[in-house]
Amino acid sequence: MSLLQMRNCDVYYGKAKTLHDISLDVEEGEIVSLIGRNGAGKSTLIKAIIGLMGLERGERLFDGRDVTGLAPEALSRLGIAFVPENRRIFAALNVDENLRIATVMGRTGAWDLRRIYRLFPRLEERKDTPGDALSGGEQQMLAVGRGLLTNPRLLLLDEPTEGLAPLIVQDLVAAMAAINAEGVAILLVEQNLKVPLKLAQRQYVIDNGRIQWHGQTGELLENQEKIEALISL
Amino acid sequence: MSTIVIGLSMGLLLFLLAAGLTLIFGMLRVINFAHGSLYMLGAYCAYQIVQTTGSFWLGLLVAPFLAAAIGALMERVALRPVYARDHVYQLLLTFGFILVIDEAVRLFWGLEYKQIAPPDLFSEPVAILGSQVPTYRLFIIGFGALIAAGLFFMLERSRYGMVIRAASGDPEMVQTLGISVSRIRTFVFAFGSGLAALGGVVAAPLLPIELGMGFSVIIDCFIVVVIGGLGNIRGAVLGALLIGMTRALGYTYAPSWVEFLTFVLLIATLVLRPEGLFSRKGRAA
């Protein structure tokens, strides 16, 4: 049984239909990536998964249960964490508070503040720094740490490597692998194949609001030309 | 000296009101026109409780909770369904609250004004630096400062404050952490309403308790909030003290210029620093 299943979902942005008949699933403990160019509908789909965008048609299942009508806070409590594009760090909170706020609801598990600081030592050094005074890489670590502290079973990562220096991307890739090794499933959104090829077992390619291709990472390599064409600008 | 005491006490009284208004705006992005009506309701409650039990302190304790309950109801029942709509609807709605509350007060207490005396504890003035100062004014200064300190502590150090600061900036993101933002909205609206009523109780021994009292104070309150920076508690304290002192000094030295000075401050702020004199980027406190 899949951990997350999106079945035949249509999503509207205002009056415009932006996602068409999307079906996607993530198995327990798996890394899946969702690849597409700018404006393809990646972020909209992620927001539809976490409940920030409503489904006009279709259903969302989590752990076999129909959770189509649930609000984001309920989905978070079930174990879906959201690490958004542009990180959305709380500017009025310092680093420590940005992490602690994720523990307010008290979903306990393997991840606590100490472990996050061990995973990202840089964050502990900057504990008292206001959220809006961090570098891009630090913000990304903070956003991932914040998501993990809700002790999710599924982590949604929306373009986590965007705009980061190669060395920091390496660190993040290692962190994602470590997080996944703990049994957390990851849905990784990217604009290119670099990180997905390193981490993910399965791939979805989205364009014009439709899933255009999906398959194992090995199959992707066989069709690489076609897929590059779908995601290139 | 007594001018300073009057200025500070006016300032801290204004702060009690402005703090609630600015907290509500920061969290809900709604300018609550009915804030002055809740202040008035607080004063009438204090009057009723003093009439019935003889205790001002009981009024100070009970009236804010009563107003908070009414505020919670207003938010849950009326405001919540219109968040998704244009701001005009929310403004009209809070304007409607004024009419409802005013009419309820008129039905219940009638049109003639009421009065209560300060608690006996404050009946004797004290001499400070050679001038006679009403002790009740000193109480307002101390009490207002205590509430201000408590608010800062709550916002900056407590979990509630942390969630409120985060949700004022990015409510969606707070939701995705499993926290119900609609409950925070209700809490903040109720809390702000309670603060307004607290201001009403504190002001009650100083002023005639009458139907128009909410309206005259809410204008000053809006000015404080704009000068301090919308959604900003530190700004509300400083803005309130600035307006309080301006008014007190104005009444003493240039009584016919008081309104003029107040509005010049407002206009200067809007022209030179429209984000507020004391605002810091992205901060709720």
TrEMBL record, chain A:
One of its GO terms (biological process) is L-amino acid transport. InterPro entries: AAA+_ATPase (IPR003593), ABC_transporter-like_ATP-bd (IPR003439), ABC_transporter-like_CS (IPR017871), BCAA_Transport_ATP-bd_LivF (IPR052156), P-loop_NTPase (IPR027417). The keyword Hydrolase does not apply. Keywords: Amino-acid transport, ATP-binding, Nucleotide-binding, Transport. It holds the Pfam family ABC_tran. GO terms for molecular function: ATP binding; ATP hydrolysis activity; branched-chain amino acid transmembrane transporter activity. Residues 4-233 form the ABC transporter domain. Belongs to the ABC transporter superfamily. This is High-affinity branched-chain amino acid transport ATP-binding protein LivF.
From TrEMBL, chain B:
The chain crosses the membrane at residues 6-26, 33-50, 56-79, 91-109, 136-155, 187-207, 213-230, 260-278. Signal peptide: none annotated. It is a multi-pass membrane protein. InterPro entries: ABC_transp_permease, BCAA_transport_permease. GO terms for biological process: amino acid transport. One of its GO terms (cellular component) is plasma membrane. It comes from the Bacteria. It is found in: Cell membrane. CDD domains: TM_PBP1_LivH_like (cd06582). Keywords: Amino-acid transport, Cell membrane, Membrane, Transmembrane, Transmembrane helix, Transport. PANTHER family: ABC TRANSPORTER ATP-BINDING PROTEIN, BRANCHED-CHAIN AMINO ACID TRANSPORT SYSTEM PERMEASE PROTEIN LIVH. Belongs to the binding-protein-dependent transport system permease family. LivHM subfamily. This is High-affinity branched-chain amino acid transport system permease protein LivH. It comes from Oceanibacterium hippocampi.
